[in-house]
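Minutes, project check-in

Agenda point 3 was the complex the collaborators sent over. CS summarized: two entities, 234 residues total, and the question is how they sit relative to each other. Sequences were read into the notes so everyone works from the same version.
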Amino acid sequence: QLQLQESGPGLVKPSETLSLTCTVSGGAISSSPYYWGWIRQPPGKGLEWIGGIYYTGNNYCNPSLKSRVTLSVDTSKNDFSLRLSSVTAADTAVYYCARLPTYASGSYRFYMDVWGKGTTVTVSS
Amino acid sequence: DIQMTQSPSSLSASVGDRVTITCRASHNIDIYLNWYQQKPGKAPNLLIYGASNLRAGVPSRFSGSGSGTDFTLTISSLLPEDFATYHCQQSYDSLARYTFGQGTKLEIK
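CS then shared the predicted structure for the full assembly.
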């Protein structure tokens, strides 16, 4: 059974870089045609899409965060990572990783069918 | 960006009730609409994808419909475990521009 697990510091100082890793178990991250994504949820608020990455490294990021976000993948470790630079208190949230299967062969539209449990990141000095 | 608006934002209902939640897109998104259920302190869980496709293992009391800009999630007869927050999400736009609705909190009356 596929499982995803987020890991990383729970506390980050303002202006520093948030770094999270999502480790995939029970399946290969290089399985086609899945993308792998990051979503966050500020306290008491709704979900916000951050971005998605393919095992080749091809990735797409939310334009509102793009200047600060770096997505990467490590197939040898079967994990993928998120880096968010210059964080502020507004970046305080639960961060989730997820698997994104495509609707149909050849489609470039996806949904999120397997999620990690989430990790809480607080930005504070 | 395509804006997703859910209504109502919160809803009180009783066990056994039939409940409908609406999600409206600011632009035509065809059938590329997904529904997730989220319980407190837990990750979202996919219920329906492609507007009306029930994920394997999800009870048949859940159903989805709609296309274009207007979509609904219906729970035919509420069970205690259904009290949660429900989120819609569009996958029509570029993978960079996926967006979620603000969520609908379903509470016990």
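Noted in discussion: The mean pLDDT of chain A is 95.
Follow-up: revisit at the next meeting once the mutant set is ready.
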